[in-house]
Amino acid sequence: MSNAMSIQWWSESPKTIKSARVGVKEFVCYLAPHTIGALVFPELIPSTVCAGASIDCMRTCLAWHSGQAGMVPMGASDLYLNECRAARLRRLAVLYSARDEALDAMAAQAVKLASKAREAGMLPAFRPNGGSDLFWLGNGLAKRLNGIAQVFDYTKLMPSAMRDSNYHLTYSYNGENMASAMRALEIGINVAIVFAVPKKRALPMTWRTPFGEYPVIDGDEHDARFLDAPRSIVGLRAKGVAKQTFGKFAVTA
Ligand code: SF4
Fold first, then answer.
1. 172: CA distance to ligand 1 center in Å?
2. How far is the CA of 134 from the centre of ligand 1 (A)?
3. Quick check: is 72 in a domain?
4. Closest Cα to atom 3, ligand 1: which residue?
C-alpha cells in the first residue's frame, strides 16, 4: 500500500453533518493551513498554501484553532502539534511529496464514500481545501470525480469564473479584499462574509455594496455551498478565536 493510500483523507465535522439537512453527504480534507507546512518542511512545502490569506484569517483560522486542532495548551504557538494538527500536517506533506499519487488516493477514497452516500439516497460532495486554498487541489479532484460527485471550496483567490461543472467556488472575504469580493459578485460568484453576529442571532437580510444590494443566505444552516442561489452573500457568524476577538474580517451587521 502506498503512503498516500494509507492516509485517511476525508472526514466529517459538525458543519459538514449539517449538509444532511439538504440531502448532501459532505466530506472535507483538512490540511495544515497557511505557512505551517513551509515552516516545518521548508524543503518540501512552498511558503504558504493560502496565497490569499490575511493576517486576521491566519490568526483565527478554524482549521488550526477550532475543534480538536484548537485543543492546545494556553499560549501555545501555531507550531505546537497535537494529534489532530500533526495529521493535517502529515496529509499536506504527502500531498507535496507525491501530488498525483495523493490526488489519486483522495479520489479513490472519495469514490467509495460517494457510492455509500448514494446508496443512502444522498448527494455526495467533497471539499478538498478544508485548511488550504490550492486551486490545483480542488480542480484535480473535480476532474477525477467528474460524473461521480460534486466538489466545492471556499477561496480567497479570485476565480475567473466557474470552470468545471462539478467544481463550485465561493469567494471568501478576508478583511482586505472587498474590491475583489465585489468583482466576484459582479461575475456571478457568491461571496462568504463573516459577520460579527453571535450564535443564534439573525444575520442581516441583505448586504449593500457600491454595486447594489445582495441577499444574505444563512451559511451556518448547512455547508453545501453549491446549492446557494447565485449572486448571494453567504453570511457566516464569527466562530472560534474570531468570535472572541472579532478580527477585521468580521463585519458588523
Ligand atoms: S485562507 Fe482559509 S484556510 Fe487559509 S489561513 Fe485563511 S481561513 Fe485558514
1. 10
2. 11
3. yes
4. 131
Report yes or no: 216 and 235 within 8 Å, Cβ to Cβ: yes
| CA-based nearest residue to 31, from 56, 76, 62 | 62
Q: Is residue 2 part of a domain?
A: no
| Torsion sign, CA atoms 116, 121, 126, 127 | negative
Residue 179 lies in a domain: yes
Buried b / exposed e across 173-183, counting CB within 10 Å, b at 16+?
Answer: bbbbbeebbbe
SS3 content of the chain, % helix, strand, coil (to 5): 35, 20, 45
pLDDT in tens, the chain (253 residues): 358 999 999 999 998 999 999 999 999 999 999 999 999 999 999 999 999 998 988 988 999 999 999 999 999 999 999 999 999 999 999 999 999 999 999 999 999 999 999 999 999 999 999 999 999 999 999 999 999 999 999 999 987 655 557 999 999 998 888 889 999 998 889 999 999 888 888 999 999 887 789 999 999 999 999 999 998 999 999 876 655 555 566 777 6
Domain-embedded: residue 95: yes
Q: Which domain holds residue 75?
A: 14-251
What's the maximum distance between 2 C-alpha atoms anywhere in the chain? 55
Any residues with Cβ below 6 Å from ligand 1, and which? 33-34, 50, 53, 57-58, 61, 63, 131-133, 156
Total structural domains in the chain? 1
